[in-house]
Amino acid sequence: MKTALLGSKDTINKLMALLLVFGLIFGAFPIIPGQATADANENIKVVINGKAAKFDVAPKSIQGTTLVPFRGVAENLGGKAVWEEKSRSVTVTKGSIVLKLTIGSKTAYINGEKTSLAVAPQLVNNRTLVPLRFISEGFGYDVNWNGTTKTVTISEKKNTPVKKGGIVNIYTSRHYGVEPVFAEFTKETGIKVRFTTGGDAVLRERLKAEGKNTPADIYMAVDAGNLWLAAQDGLLQSVNSTTLKNNVPENVRDDKNRWFGFTKRVRTIMYNPAKVKASEVTSYEDLADPKWKGKLILRPGTHVYNQSLVANLIATYGPEKTEKILKGWMANEPKFIDSDSRILETLAAGGGDVAITNHYYLGRLVEKDSSFPIKVQWADQDGKGVHANISGAGVTTHAENKENAIILLEWLSSPKGQKLFADTNHEYPTNPNVAPHEVIAKFGKFKEDSLDKGEFGRLQAEAVKLMEKVGYK
Fold first, then answer.
1. N or C: where does the chain have the smaller number of CB atoms within 10 Å of the terminal CB?
2. Which CATH code fits 36-156?
């Protein structure tokens, strides 16, 4: 009987050989991306207010964004959802909140106001899946992701109640585009914002001098180095906020939660394509090539933007190689212009071939004139990535209005706050779930150096000393 079932030994060997051939054939082909994603997405759990949520289609993770069936998430959060076949759009409502999304589009609306999504809604197994975080935060919930257990936890916000007529005082070097941002915050929360502007270092010294008598509740800077120095000087206090920890990635916030980055500003290479090929300037080191003698434009070394860039280079390459790069720049007898906007305008007018500026200055000029001739080159894409500084803030140690200060920082980290704060100056949001302004999105994607931004402050003194040594002043 046993022989009849299995056949001869020769038959078994032939069968094994056949199976091996099939294995080799199928093993020679890569796994289909959709299949790989499905396997990676297994067992994603969603917990809402302490209870496990159930969906008729399992949650999917696409490019780091969790998507779930729109009707299921709406009902689990106490809202209602309507599907519009003609426009292939979804409208989700709860009370006075109306969220609208469209399949395949990264543009969404919150009460009629346009915002951007990191991942567009998608059709999977005849079900429309939408970004879970966008719907949840749009309804006013906190969202937390645990990568170890693959669990999304959604809970009602527990912000400190806003006092009618409350205020928050800010010392800020970010003087451009802040008025409409703060005005919207006041409209939503009732908290009035009063701000004093000045240079990062000047405001930091003012905080030191004022001590316990400072009126400032928040110190806002356009450079991570100055935020780090403010924390080291004891001018900022630790903030225990789940919202901030969830919305602001670790490498753009202080390890003791004394400051948080809200936008990224990439300092990279700009070139005139009529004179330069992109392949000629792929790294900061390339600008040390003698062929750029008399053709390189830089901002003076005294500017904090360049000091943080050099600090980043020291952390990446070490002091010796960084010194060699800087010497090469100086040997090229660069033209110094103390304005990134004028540097770009000078390039466009033929007054130079290559330069280093922050990306958003080009964004502003391109928005005004789409034919503006200068191009951006993301530096060091074959290495650790391009240098990106931040604009951020922290609550001062002696803040009189601490509760309101935290509410403002949390609001700035939210999707709406991020869009307003970043888009007004064409910067990149630090919240990974918020898409950049359409103008700078056209600059293309880039690899960013993942270095902890606090290193810009720790290495600032060494950077300044090295710049003075090579004559970069």
1. N
2. 3.30.457.10
